[in-house]
Amino acid sequence: MGHEAIPSLFQMYQSFPQNQVAKPTTSQSYSTQLHFVNNQASSAPYHIRENATLTALQQHVLFWDRNGDGIITPPDIYTGFRSLGFSIPYSIAGLLINFFFSYPTRLAYSYFPDPLFRIYIPSIHKAKHGSDTGIYSSDGHFRPNLFEELFDKFDASGTGGLGVNELFALLSKDRVAADPAGWSFAFMEWGTTWLLLQRGGKVWKQDLKQAYDGSLFYRIRDDREREHGWRQGYGMRDFWRSLRSDGTWKDSIKKSL
Description:
Layout: H1 11-14, E1 34-37, E2 46-49, H2 56-62, E3 71-72, H3 74-83, H4 88-93, H5 96-106, E4 119-120, H6 144-154, E5 161-162, H7 164-174, H8 180-197, E6 203-204, H9 205-213, H10 215-225, H11 236-246, H12 249-256
Antiparallel strand pairs: 1-2, 3-4, 5-6
Helix pairs in contact: 7-8
């Protein structure tokens, strides 16, 4: 299982979109038409590639595959976060994703770690961690019943959105014993989700569903390129504005609960 065997396993990406990727075999399979990044064509911010079936988890991370080779490099992670509007320090911190998740995805091809900390999309399901919602199955398929159940349990207001307190309750429910790594990853993932998506202090159901299948990231990138921009999320401007108007960032957060 050496490095030389890896390219042949990426034929589905090398021939994409002409050849169809193998379809999921479980009854919970979930697929959408893919929005695929094309950095070379400024006239086409993204393409809709038909006849390519990936798992929802593969679609979720596909935005960061900048050249369509099935591999996500550290520069891909940085560039992707910047295109979503994250600051330079936050985007640099995002490189921890490669540090922690490269080796699990590498195990599909070799026991030796990737010296470049690349993430392999076909085996991204191997990077699933504990203390998560279970909305992605062990094979990376979307489980719509668990997604609906999440809002049934934690959307106390019935508005279709989850506030900070409800997200902390969700994290507490999912936390399993002796899994500090899973606790940490779940906290970082939901924290990043809130920073990116919050509107009126809540993460809304439709936005979250699009985050699970990855289409949301293209929507945000495209909105940022338009005049009106992306009008959701919580950034440094909001932080400093809250210091001026509310006194402390904690007061600003409390207003969103």
